[in-house]
Amino acid sequence: MKKVLVSLLVLALATASAFAAVDFTGKVVAGYTFAYNNDVWSYSTMGEDGVGSAPIKLNATVADENGYWDVTMKGALVADSRVGGNANVNLGKIIMGADSDLSIKIGMYANDRITGYRAYTNQSGLNLDRVRTYKPGLWFNLDVAYGDLVAVQVGGGPKLNISGESAGWFDTTDPDKSPKADLIVSAIVRPIDGVAVSAAYTMTGDCAIYGSYNPGKGFMNVEASVDLGKLLGTDWTFGIDVADKMAFKGDTLPFGNLFLASVYGGIDMVKLALEYGLFTMDQEGADAMNYLSAGLDLNVLEGLILNAYFGSFDLAHFQDYWFLGANVGYQVYDGVTFQVNVQYAKEPAAEIIGGDYSQGSVQAAGFSITPKMVIEF
User: Fold this and answer.
1) How buried is residue 253: exposed, middle or buried, by Cβ count under 10 Å (0-12/13-18/19+)?
2) Which of 26, 87, 120, 367 could form a disulfide with 223 if both were Cys (CB 3.0 to 4.6 A apart)?
3) CA separation for the pair 179, 183 (Å, rounded)
4) What's the CA gap between 36 and 29, in Å, rounded?
5) What is the pLDDT, as a whole number, of residue 80?
6) Residues 117, 184: Cα–Cα separation, whole Å
7) Is the peptide bond before 55 cis (omega within 30 degrees of 0)?
């Protein structure tokens, strides 16, 4: 009986220490996009996932300050909307102590996706390099890391119905059916500060690579980044990123390949970023498509947001697929920002890159104005 009481006391103390202090962080984006195209005005909501998404979306993380556990919740704050997210327990920190460099996270994703590790810094915000599990479902994950030096991730799960019951492994006769079974494996290595290399693979993955539909065939990327500013310990930034993303048609033959390269740099007051992409449909390089974007950020006044961007998703048909835009905003309070985006796009990004874009991407054809509020906590 004494041993039982001692065990319960130890468990109670461990639980109390784990919940003694937590960090609560999150973000809400809310706004509207007013678009003018073909002599017609239209409007849509502007949320964290871009045009047409829920105007108010929960994206909050609660984490133990010692790194023992973390819970992230995501979901639109509208009727009949499902809230998803992920929860992790860090066995490495619990066993070895909060100061240990060893991290062993075991967790689960519900109505969410697992994204592979990325060395590519995604300067354009388009997420063209990203590899992640198929449509939001129920996934399990294991992440093992040692400090910032190396991290390895394995995750996935079987195909499940909406109710959570098993539905077997994915059926290629119905490529649109969701969800599918998936497996994701990724790793990242940072040998020194300013240098990173990563790789990721999914058995099923997303369904598009720069507009090419690729249901249930798998994706792989290899990435590297070098930040000379960090390497040299300077106040200025100069970095180079490269990434190669492949979509597989069979066991070895790529269905599509997207090569990306970006160069970025500047000082606190002025920063410039360029991103180039080359998409090919087969190994011989047929049906090649070239993409280019440029962005300029100005930090001339504290709290003022001022940036502009320009580019084309198909340089060979530049006159049909160019875009130009700018963002102006001001931080009225710590974590509260009001912004206005003004943009003209000849064609929307969805026509070229398959709709896999993030907030701030070129999503609506014609002229558009997007006022929005961003709250971060």
Assistant:
1) exposed
2) 120
3) 13
4) 22
5) 55
6) 10
7) no
